Amino acid sequence: MALMTKSPYHAMILILSSSKGVARVSSLSCAQLPGISSQLLEGSGSRYIYKALMVATRGLIQKNFWQHERLGFIGETYNPSADYAPKLVPCPKDFKARTASSRDSKTQELAPEEVNYIDARRSQVLPEAYNSYITNVERYVSGLREPGTVLPSYVSRILSSKNQTALPRMSFAIAGGAYRGDQRKTNRCEFAAGAIFAAAVMNVFDGKNVTSASSGLGGVLNAADYITGLSGSAWLLISWMQSELSPLFDLVLGAKRMGRENPELSGWLTQYGLLNPTDALESNTFAERMHNRWLQTVYWTRLILQVNSKRFAGFPIGIVDLWGRILSYHFLSGSNPDNFFNGTAPHGINQTFSGFVNFSADAFWDQYATRTCFKNHTLPFPVLTTLPQLQDSRYANFPAVPYNYTRYEISPYEFGSYDPFLSSFIPTKNLGTKLSAGLPEDKSKCCAGFDNAGFIMGMSSNIFTAYKYLLDFYFNLRRNLPIGTPEILTALVPNPFRGLGTKEYFEKDEAELHLIDGGLGLGLCPKFTFIMICLLVSHGSLRRAQRPIPEVTPYHPLLVRARKVEVIIAVDGVSKLDFMRIAEVSSQDSKTNRLILSYQTADFNNFANGSSVIHSARRAALYPSVYKFPKVPMNVTKFTTQGLVERPTFFGCEEFDAPLLIWIANSAPIDGSTPISNRTTLQLTFPLNQTQAMMKESTDVGTRGFPSRSALTKGQFKDPLWPACLSCAIVDRARGRLGVAREGLCNDCFNRYCWTEK
């Protein structure tokens, strides 16, 4: 297909639509796209689309190419009233940033709305939820018919209490790891295993699932105070919230595939790739291939126009806006195979994250029941995380974020950080407002609608700042790319904390926050000998078990002392560095002070190895007045040699000033079968049968427990006492508050499942 077009905009559309059979864009057509050189536009299929997005977006959105342009070849005129664009509204009375702690950080304050939500949930919802859970456990344990399988009386007494103060304070931390498959063995760019793994494990603990309830594990999820997510798990949580806490297999695979009728739940449509959705369509004939290209063109045109409406409204946009709209087609209710390409459904275009607080169905969904999970407090309070892009010019080429940079969190009520050098928040519904020293620059111009749910998902999963590693991963491209990270690759948010915080708050003077994937937090070595794998300095060789993973599990929101979380169930999924080569500093530029990288090949197996826990513990130790993390092995070798990665482990069993951590790690099947849940972060498409197989394997991870050696020799790969032991762990801090001694079966469980330094 010739790419001779009348405008750069049409050239972009043709690039995106020509997903197959095109090896190179001509120099002439490339010249029509500012900022693009033909040498970067080589390849085909998904690689071609990805590269076009990476190098073309910045040049296109800097120019007013398509404002008011009629798309005659599509027969559509862009509607400027589309709801993706934020709006300026008068500021609320006395609007300002909220200070969340005292100067010494010893006193913390939660948002009043969060306090009210948790109080209502604990008094109105959790007594029944815990009672239902303990009923499931007791029914399961009574059916074991084995000696010594009687729960201590205090377990039932605590979990069936009508007094909310006596109930456990338990929460979930769900790891990210967006997209996972072996990209080096296939040219196909494929879908989201981190989210799929997390959904399957959450399903194990969902009391609405009859199988989970009968296993003695169902009901735990329904009784949590909080649930945190980042990257792929941010997709999962927002999708789950918007679906009114639907059964998780229905949410992912579609209700029809699970034998149920629910027109809202067509699943995540994992068969439609995030960059090449038409690849899933029939393309056996020339007519079918041309039709698919046409659909792809219309699809991308619609997304680009929607995103550009935000720019015309006066707000910064970047690739994350486009990424968020792509994600919305999969993770927000309304998409199905019939409307995916025809534009008749809103695909979450006007759904905001703060809007979940007062969730009313949009016009498309008026025919269905109004969502009430947030209003009725049936949802564990959700908190997502994101990180700032590095400002230190020495590390301009590194996507990972050191410990001393801000860990931002966002809930439907607030956006900000409890880190002691900032400790400030603004209402999520007013994200995008320009503030200075905590006050709006113009009281008549506060922002509303900036927190689009798709944009929030994209923000928390933004790995585009690692584009140099991505280009190397996909295309073995190691050319001299520009130093630093173009801001267009970050989630651009007007900085509401400008002029606030201490000198340790590195974004203090920035007009905009440049936000990236919440799972790219990683400490740097003291002498910066290695970057992105700093633990190797102290750990020695590059053995597989020692390759560290960033903070892919969002612990920090649950460590805030004011939240009073006593038990954390952590679902730790995957490696976040699986797409990166090991980067070693080979030299330093004397003029710019920038570090120069050399590369080694890294062979990651993509399973959890404990590094995420280690990094979270190290960072929490830097700010003891704010965060308290239980003791954990500080060497990944111990996680592997002690078998901690292969079974649930309890950390902090005797540390009553820190939360008890119940760590469930994604690991290979212990029955010797071939693993499929360790897909790479960049896998963007899954056939439905593969998705279902992954969920089954991930379910086994949640139900496995810690089988004894004698059981393993008999071919028994699950611990029948795991549900009972989990209930013992959930009540243990509440037991301590009552001054009751640990006893009986719970003692045996803690002897087996607890990790101690000895």
Automatic annotation (TrEMBL):
Q: Indicate yes or no for the key word DNA damage.
A: no
What does the record give as the reaction this protein catalyses? a 1-acyl-sn-glycero-3-phosphocholine + H2O = sn-glycerol 3-phosphocholine + a fatty acid + H(+)
What are the record keywords, sorted? Answer: Glycoprotein, Hydrolase, Lipid degradation, Lipid metabolism, Signal
A Gene Ontology molecular function term for this protein is:
phosphatidylcholine lysophospholipase activity
**Domain PLA2c: residue ranges:** 90-758
Write one Pfam family the protein is assigned to.
PLA2_B
Instruction: Please tell me whether the keyword Nucleotide-binding is annotated for this protein.
Output: no
| Alphabetized InterPro entries for the sequence | Acyl_Trfase/lysoPLipase, LysoPLipase_cat_dom
Q: Mind telling me which SMART domains this protein's record contains?
A: PLAc
Q: Name one GO biological process term.
A: glycerophospholipid catabolic process
Q: What is its EC number?
A: 3.1.1.5
Using the UniProt record, name the top-level EC class of this enzyme in a single word: hydrolase
Q: Which GO terms describe its cellular component?
A: cytosol
Q: Family per UniProt?
A: Belongs to the lysophospholipase family.
Q: Please identify the protein, giving its name as recorded.
A: Lysophospholipase
Q: Which organism is it from?
A: Melampsora larici-populina (strain 98AG31 / pathotype 3-4-7) (Poplar leaf rust fungus)
